[in-house]
Amino acid sequence: MKKSYILFGVIGIIAILMAGFFVGTLFFGSNIYSKRVVYEEGVSSSPGYGGTPQADAYSKTGTQIYTESSELNSNDRKVVKNGNANIEVESFDSSISKIKELSSNFGGYVTNSNMWTSDSGTKSGNITVRIPENRFEEFGDSLIQVGKIKSKETSSYDVTEQYMDLQARLKNLRNQEKRYTELLSMAEDVEDVLAIEVQLGRIRGEIESYEGRIKYLDNTTSFGTFYINLYEPQEVIHEWGIKNAFDRAIDAFITSVAGIIILGGFFIPIIILIGIIYLIVKYTKKRVKK
Predict the structure, then answer these.
(1) Is position 39 within any domain?
(2) Which of 81, 103, 173, 202 could bond to 224 as cystine, CB 3.0-4.6 Å?
(3) What domain count does the chain have?
(4) How far apart are CA 152 and CA 84, in angstroms?
C-alpha cells in the first residue's frame, strides 16, 4: 500500500511539473531571456530583429529601379533615393565609427543606429545615414572600406511630376490669396468681409499644406537614405555542450516553477470556492437532521 502511495505521489509530482512547464512555456515562450543593448542614438530594435543576418536572405546582386517622368533636364529632376547593404565586419564598433566618418566626408549625417549582442558575445546591428543625392552612389561604393559586403541594393523614384504639380497648385493658390486680399481691402459690407475672410482662411490652410508637402519632397530628394546592417561572424566553438545542457535545464526548471505558480493562481480560488460550498452543504445537512 505504501509503495502505491509513493508511486502515485511521484506520478503526481511529474504531472504537476510537466503541466507547469507547459503553462510556463505558453505564457513566457521557449526563450525567456534575451540580451539587447541600444547603441547610441535612435530607437532600439525589437527582440529577434537582430542576430546574425544570413546572406541568403538578401539579394546577391545590387539592383537599381528607376521610375521616369517626362523628359526633363537631369538637374531639374526630383529623385528619392534609398539603399540598403548587408555587411560582415571584423569589429562592429570600429565599423560604426568608419561609417560615421564616411557619411561626414560625403556631407551626410547619421539618423539612428542600434546594436545588440548574441549569447556568444558577437555584435550586430544597423545604422541609418542620410547622404546628399549627388553623392549617394559614391557613398554606396565606399562601403567596401567597412567590411565584406554580402549584398547591396539601391532604388530611385522620380517624383518630378508630383513636385511640379504641387508647385503649380501652390502658385495658383497664392494668386487666389492675392485677389481675395484685394477684395477684402475694398469690401465695405460686414457680410462680404466675413465671406472673404472665410475663403482666405481656406486658401491659406491649403497653401500651408502644399508648402509642407513641397518641403518634405525637397528634404527627401536632397538627401538619400541608406540602411546598413552590420554583423560580426559567429565563432565556431567545439565543446562538449555540458554547460549548454545545464543552462537549458535551469531555464526549463524556472519555466516549470513559473507555470506551477500560474496554475496555483488559477486553481486555488476554485478550490477555496469548492471548500466553502462543501462546508455550507455539510452545515445545512446537520441543521436538517436536527
Answers:
(1) no
(2) 81
(3) 3
(4) 6
Residue 169, number of CB atoms within 10 A of its CB: 16
- The Cα–Cα gap between 263 and 29 comes to 16
As given in the structure block, the three cell numbers for residue 99 are 561609417
The Cα–Cα gap between 95 and 129 comes to 14
Residues of the chain with pLDDT under 70: 1-10, 12-75, 236-241, 243, 266, 289-290
If asked whether residues 139 and 64 sit together in one domain, one would say: yes
Cell 480560488 belongs to: 269
62 and 154 within one domain = yes
Is-above-0.85 flag for pTM?
no
Nearest CA-CA partner of 77 in 217, 210, 212, 225: 217
The span from the CA of 194 to the CA of 112, in Å, is: 49
Range of the domain at 99: 55-158+226-231
Q: How far apart are CA 255 and CA 258, in angstroms?
A: 5
Report CA dihedral (106, 108, 110, 111) to the nearest 10 degrees.
Answer: -150
At 78 the three-state DSSP class reads: coil
Summarize pLDDT for 185-243 with one digit per residue, the tens.
888 888 888 998 999 999 999 999 999 999 999 988 999 999 999 999 877 665 566 76
Task: Kindly state the cell numbers that stand for 58.
Answer: 538578401
Residue 94 parent element (H or E):
helix 92-105
